Amino acid sequence: MRIGIIGCGTVANRHAAAITGLSEELELAALCDHTAAKAQAFAEKYAPEAAIYTDHRAMLEKAGLDLVVICVPPYAHTDEVECAAQGGIHILMEKPIALTSEQAWRMVECVEQAGIKTQVGFQFRFGEAVEKFKALQAEGKTGRVALFTGRYFSNALHADWWRDRSKSGGQVIEQAIHLFDMMRYFMGEPAAVYSRQENLLHQDVPGYTSDDTSATVVTFRDGGIGVITATNNAVPGKWIGDYRVVAHKVTADFVSANIATLTQTDEAHTPVIAIDSERDVRREQLRDLINAVKTGGTTRTPLREGATVLDLLLKARQAAEERREITL
Ligand SMILES: NC(=O)c1ccc[n+]([C@@H]2O[C@H](COP(=O)([O-])OP(=O)(O)OC[C@H]3O[C@@H](n4cnc5c(N)ncnc54)[C@H](O)[C@@H]3O)[C@@H](O)[C@H]2O)c1
Known about the structure:
alpha/beta, Rossmann fold, nine-stranded mixed beta sheet, 11 helices, binds nicotinamide-adenine-dinucleotide
């Protein structure tokens, strides 16, 4: 399969590594960045033969691609999904897929009408520990999930666009979204949300309008409760996204998607399962998409999932602004 990348920045490097790891199936054939030098430098690193573009429309029209990885910042999404869908090109797209519900659902409608395969960059669904918990859940061995608590702790100024809430959506929408996706993955559809989102510690940083301190409570249709906190003023150089899941018969402590301790709580001997894996979750995410293309099956995280979690987070933001719980 011929694959192209739009947006040759930070996260594109992770995808390029995953693509290179599947080189028997994939050829990194084209690269697009509106700054040509970035695409050139990227080509030198990963695919010297790749065609270089500065306009995604030209790339999607001319490069003969089967699959495109979309890695532009949230504010920069225009019609790349629509152009790919028109060309029958399958899509792997980074989160958040948009900054408005309208744009997100337009994309979903477009790809579903075209019948192409899509995958959103929620790579943590492919962690070995996450898969183990999901397998136990599917077998009825966890019982109902009652509680999820997670924290997203970072401390970095990131890119200019990241600090600007109007361009990134803010920390909850751009970063903690991974935890919200995981919470939904385990607990199903939310019923209500309350949130507080503040910029408490970066008010003196020019252009910093993102939230840097937040707490969000989500209740689910079956009554389950989730709490996610986030800060961008924790330990510098660390990105911590850990969480705990309490189900009727199992309590799980996730250090990451690949590392967790699952303790069975309904038996006298409380057996413990410890998972400690180094699986490349992005490669698995890509493999799942390729497999869906080949078999005509579905991916684990189609674009519709990206729009659904975005809607939850837009409601969380509204709840924070209006200081009230919002029913979904
Ligand atoms: N899944 C994850 O764990 C993860 C991790 C990091 C970033 N991301 C997401 O990936 C996306 C990109 O983040 P990043 O950190 O790589 O950003 P970045 O700023 O490092 O890179 C973005 C690149 O896109 C290019 N670009 C911007 N607009 C463009 C356009 N219209 N056409 C072509 N190129 C364009 C920029 O020149 C830049 O090279 C964001 O949505 C971010 O949330 C996801």
